[in-house]
Amino acid sequence: MPPPSDISAPAAHSTPARAGNPGDRAWGWGITIFGGSLLVVAGLILYELGRVAAPSWGQLGYFKFLFSSAWDPVQEKFGALPFIYGTLVTSGVALLIALPVSVGLALFLSEMGPRALRAPVAYSIEVLAAIPSVIYGLWGLFVMVPWLRSSVEPFLQKTLGFLPIFQGPPIGLGYLAAGVILALMILPTIASVTIEVLKTVPPSLKEGALALGATRWESIRISVLPYARPGIIGASLLGLGRALGETMAVTMVIGNSPEIHASLFAPGYSLPAVIANEFAEATGDVHVGALAALGLVLFGITLILNAIARILVEAVARGPKGSRA
Amino acid sequence: MNAAQEISPVNSSPRRPVDSLDTPVRVSPEGPAPVVAAEPPKLTVKNLDAWYGSNHALHGVNLTVPPRSVMAAIGPSGCGKSTFLRCLNRMHELIPGARAEGTLLIDGQDLLSRDVDPVTLRRRVGMVFQRPNPFPTMSIRDNVAAGLKLNGIPGNHHEIVERTLRQSALWDEVKDRLDASALSLSGGQQQRLCIARALAVQPEVLLMDEPASALDPIATAKIEDLIHELKERYTIVIVTHNMQQAGRVSDQTAFFYMGDLIEVGPTEKIFTNPSEKRTEDYVTGKFG
Ligand SMILES: Nc1ncnc2c1ncn2[C@@H]1O[C@H](COP(=O)(O)OP(=O)(O)O)[C@@H](O)[C@H]1O
Ligand SMILES: [Mg+2]
Question: What does pTM read for this prediction?
């Protein structure tokens, strides 16, 4: 008979990594090479974009390009601001809508929901992820935009119309439409990553909270969510990354007008949308260059967001002050 | 909510034992047992059965625990010790398919009945787990105060935090870094922090499932000393598969085997003069 040992005790043996093992070293080198070549590819893309963008950088000046809001290729006026603004606003709206919904869905699926409902909900999330973006665009154009125009926007105007973001004529096509479509598109990403993150929360933490007399929701609030927070932030940033770069669906519903409006009901434009729309017909090095420069800006925004994400995640992972973990 | 704080954790029920035959401390043939429960029991378990799906894990367990005493549950792995413990604060309900039937009385009040909210029960019956499980994102102070916040107890938590940390013999080691993360503590300190966390809400009964099995001998000795002190105020049920530990910390010992409660009685008797052959075989190391 085996000696008494509790079945719930964790495995006592874990093989320590042996640094000197030749296989491990080869593996290490392999990883380094692959990682390195990724960096090289990213560098080459940046270089090429920079080369194409150079004529317009030179002619317009960085500052004027970034902070001017006039975009008129015919008169060779190129200002990036409406696109930067449109990209950030639509992605922001998308995250604002998608984050709470995704976290709620993830909690429902992994912690609270009735078991019978979990599978169908999980399946529909997968379906959402599999829909091509042009289909989102079509649906947005023919179903969602008319609905926004006739119901949602008038309603928002009536209830929250004192806010500048909900003023102006309800057109349907615009920042709000793009934001909502993007929310739908990034929801599966955020939800599925969050579900994976929630699975990593040690059950012992939940038990600890429940044993203190926490209700299910209280245990989620004091033990699950704080533990999962860095991962949920990571999930949001993955979703945000997808929203920033999404082209097709946004192009179809944002209104494609290179202007800046405070109102979410107004039509706007985004960086990927303008590049996709104008690149084929761009005439002249300056126009092509300006579009490449917009590409660089998009690249830059993504990089900055990634950096912020890292800083956030690391700060959160370090835990409360004074901790060493 | 403050009134709850005023209630002393020690038993104050004036009731006498309803049926002395229910007391597990039986009079042995040689004469009266050394420890006889004069007070009404704090905890009474009657005909407790537990299942995981179709696996019948506990068969009709009957025992009582007097107030301010320590009962140890011993037995080979898989015999149902943890299951028994989890039923006592209905943590078994968290496991899909698990259910328990029977009567569980604290001061005569049935807590297994459907009318009793398990959340309320768990505030009266605290639990400490095998592996220390402090909330990793919280400071030491916030860990201790976590239960107070859940209970909506307002006011100066600092005083309660200090008192509880003193009770769990951790205060001197952490008083200068209450705001440090709970993870900055050693395993033994984390376990004492978990004990403090459980004590902060003033439970009446404290359940401990192999609280020292993940700790080194020195940390284990500290936990055992602590149990000695805590029993002045709390009723404790501890699961251990370390028989020396059961001998050191407990007043009564319950021996479980394959889901049956084989024997329960004063610890000294169980270890020196058990009535059951299987108990004797187990405590003398013939199997397990
Ligand atoms: N979560 C669970 N699901 C199903 N069966 C379980 C679970 N936990 C324990 N059991 C079963 O219940 C029995 C008693 O287990 P347990 O109470 O954990 O024993 P002990 O704590 O004495 O080692 C064992 O047969 C075990 O397989
Ligand atoms: Mg166990």
Answer: 0.78
